[in-house]
Amino acid sequence: MLKTHDFKTETKCRHCGAGLSTLLADLGATPVSNDYLRPEDRDGAEPYYPLRAFVCDECHLAQLEDFRRADDLFREDYAYFSSVSSSWVAHAKRYAEMVSDRFNLTGESTVVEVASNDGYLLQFFKSAGKNVLGVEPCRSVAEYAIKEKGIPSRIEFFGEETGRRLAAEGYAADLTAANNVLAHVPDINDFVSGFREILKPEGVSTFEFPHLLNLIRLNQFDTIYHEHFSYLSLLAAERFFKTNGLRVFDVEQIQTHGGSLRLFVCKADASWQRTGRVDEVLELERAAGLETPEVYGSYAEQVRETKRALLELLIGLKRQGKTIVGYGAPAKGNTLLNYCGIGADFLEFTVDRSPQKQNMYLPGTRLAIKAPEAIDELKPDYILILPWNIKDEIVQDMAHVRDWGCQFIVPIPRAEIF
């Protein structure tokens, strides 16, 4: 087991300011996972940054060291469009129906989504007659939401000042949604304070994020990348919401992104009653050791063993003369490939359904990103699924590859052929 005192850093916790010395994972140095390369840039230099995650001994927030600002990472030409995944859009639709019923949203209700991307979620509230507003810092996806889906969107980062200003402009919210964005914000106190400012007195905010407990139990180390500043548990979230005038009154464990939490949050003095599910999840995390440094120290070896198992599988297949391609170009896939050293010596190329990524190259490995039809042309022996969190959707969409004997490989939680 790695000793926590073997790793020291001057970084301070982004929530409570305590020093960080407990290492969660050291993935070496990698390029930024969403910095896809254009053809004219593929032979140029790329910046690499250390990719190390630590855990605060005081508030238990897992987090990266600071190397790049959020406005450097989330650029105007951000390539991730949420609507590309049909299973994610279906998840958004179910959520919209659930919260509309649970919180009695009407045509007079205002719904604000932070990190609204291409309108994948707000389209369902808009079609149901709700007042909607998206807040999205990345121009490419926000403009798509505005032009293609008619979702009014503000192209800016969200925080305390933004929430206060939008409320003054008439966007005080009955409901706010923030899906898979908490991890992306460097100043978590300013960010969550924005929800306190924009909510109506009895308004509700929901937050979804991958659960740190699953990252550890299921070896999901590839979800660690530079665009993710934090890795979240309910133990840590309760603390930073309370610090900023909010409280968690309910929680759901959901299956998205390899196992996530959905928190229901209100103002500290709102009347929503705390459910027993909050204490159940807190006890689950405590029982798993998330308040102790030992569980994090042992995780580093789990990461290395997951890498070894994947490489052993791929090396064996290549020695048999097998052809392997990747499916998907997600940020998590770039962490996996760069940390494991998997490039053109193992994979012919990868494919992605997003037109914004096609004809680009993966950062670091420089693998070509093609349209899915390239798989039908090559007819490989194996497909390595990089966005393993939607493997069922991919296997269903690509079921026809079984006709020539092609099989799938999933790398997480352990390399497996199926």
Automatic annotation (TrEMBL):
Coiled coil ranges: none
Pfam name, any one: Methyltransf_23
Domain Methyltransferase putative zinc binding: 13-74
Domain called C-methyltransferase: residue spans: 256-413
SUPFAM superfamilies xref list: S-adenosyl-L-methionine-dependent methyltransferases
Protein name: Bifunctional 3-demethylubiquinone-9 3-methyltransferase/ 2-octaprenyl-6-hydroxy phenol methylase
Origin species: Hartmannibacter diazotrophicus
